């Protein structure tokens, strides 16, 4: 039964998936890992991004990746607006933990149901020249619809790493996650910085959504599959560490791919949540915890 | 002298009697069908509130507990054709064990992490059920109702059963709220460290709250197979339960036992009406919007609004 070919294929597919999972988790790493905002609705923005890409592709024949990039400013603004509502309703009153969580859960639900009202529950997919093509390398097939999202995901990871480490606003976001009061003393406005960070987080989710619909067809309820993955990767990666997020994403991708190759695809869902439960129970600080 | 507890018991018995009376009237069958769902949500919202409202631990995994009740019932029906009271008790106990498990999770996880872990639990259990062929797997399983039920119709009979369960749940919640347990839970909700320092046995109280909450959620799910006669993972683990379970207490008010009851009756009735008159997708949208509006505008729920009006 066991074959090295199968194993090699599964590992390579998992590595490619990992790059994509990194893209999916960057936004939540920023929002939840650094800002401590438990945005349960993050996967809904991922799916919203996927549907925006679908509409552009279906109506105007836009390339999915290109339209994903074009949509990021829109999602940045949506994210900034959502954060402003969250801030004025919860954070300012000091009620962020419980009611804020319920607020985001409600938004997740509203977005999911709105999408299924508008688009129904049929699977939607995008068309592009490279989808369906693949290259063969030493007996291991590499599909372009996985390779390209992986490359874009790695590029996004690098870009966010540079943004956080090298730019003024990026460093300000790191600062706000460490000590908000100190930042205020330095004359910067934490709310302004957090609005930017939240906007970037949602924009990253929407771009990841474009990658998602390139990889596989999407239905409105797909967001549920990603709640566990996003949070598992963020927690495992050590809450907001970009490098940790990438390592955790690749780990999860490979584990899921092995699981679905050797135990059946219906079990792969349980992998991320199982890892999440395990990490939360054993080492909540994650692999690269601060 | 009649104590308030005796009044509450008498009121509970009166509600059960009224339920049986309604069942004997043999009205339009749809009324019992819808009434069952509303009462089921009274149980679910009340059970959720024991943990979420009193202790302040937000449980997103309601579907896991509800489905544990339902699947325990499916298993026992298939295995030994167990009678309904056994199903309800067993469903409750299995869900209570699960509750005890998540109670131990609270040792390490608080706030957001606890909520995410409960959500994770629901998905893991759903995956297990999808892969367990004996209880139907992903295709689901048909359940045949016992013949010759009281009141001549099984749904009408289940309606009276759910009435009794709703009364039980509300009485339990009321008892917890009025006793030292409720005060201890309120203390740990406001500040867990401070409560622990003052000698409140926080772990014991949390374990108690998660177990009782789990038990009642399982009890609500146990009659579900006989109600729908076809159980499959997507309907038993529906996200609707998670949203409703927290929306109803949030809308009614989480600090008192009457809050979840108000929220459940209002929201579930509205949903039933919307399902009949508009569409079931749209009624879920309404729940989401109402929930978000309430947490933003009226965080104390309807009870808080009432208090504010009275206070003036």
Could you characterize the architecture of this molecule?
The complex is a heterodimer of chains A (290) and B (312). Chain A is an all-alpha fold. Chain A has a domain at 26-222. Helices cover 75% and strands 3% of the residues of chain A. Chain A is built from 11 helices and 2 strands; from the N terminus they run ααααββααααααα. Chain A has helices at 4-34, 42-60, 64-91, 96-119, 144-166, 168-178, 180-185, 190-215, 223-236, 242-262, 268-282, and strands spanning 134-137, 140-143. Chain A has a two-stranded antiparallel ribbon. In chain A, strand 1 and strand 2 form a beta hairpin. In chain A, helix 3 runs antiparallel to helix 8 (190-215). The termini of chain A are far apart. The model of chain A has no long low-confidence stretch (mean pLDDT 86). Chain B is mainly alpha-helical and 312 residues long. Chain B contains 15 helices and 2 strands. Chain B has one domain. Chain B has a two-stranded antiparallel sheet with strand order 1-2. Chain B starts with a helix and ends with a helix. Chain B is globular and about 55 Å long. The relative contact order of chain B is 0.17. At the A-B interface, helix 4, helix 9 and helix 11 of A face helix 5, helix 12 and helix 14 of B.
Task: Offer a quick outline of the entry.
The complex is a heterodimer of chains A (290) and B (312). Chain A has eleven helices and two strands, in the order H-H-H-H-E-E-H-H-H-H-H-H-H. Chain A is mostly helical and 290 residues long.
The largest pleated sheet of chain A is described as:
2 strands, antiparallel
Low-confidence stretches of chain B are none
Write down the oligomeric state.
Answer: heterodimer
H and E string of chain A: HHHHEEHHHHHHH
Low-confidence stretches of chain A: none
Given the helix and strand composition of chain A, which structural class is it? mainly alpha
Q: Which strand order does the major sheet of chain B show?
A: 1-2
Shape of chain A: globular
Number of extended strands of chain B: 2
Shape of chain B: globular
Global Rg of chain B: 19 Å
* Sheet/helix structural class of chain B: mainly alpha
What proportion of the residues of chain A form beta strands (DSSP E)?
Answer: under 5%
**Helicity level of chain B, as a percent range?**
over 70%
Mean pLDDT of chain A: 86
Number of domains of chain B: 1
Tell me the fraction of residues in β-strands of chain B, as a range: under 5%
Helix content of chain A: over 70%
Mean pLDDT of chain B: 88
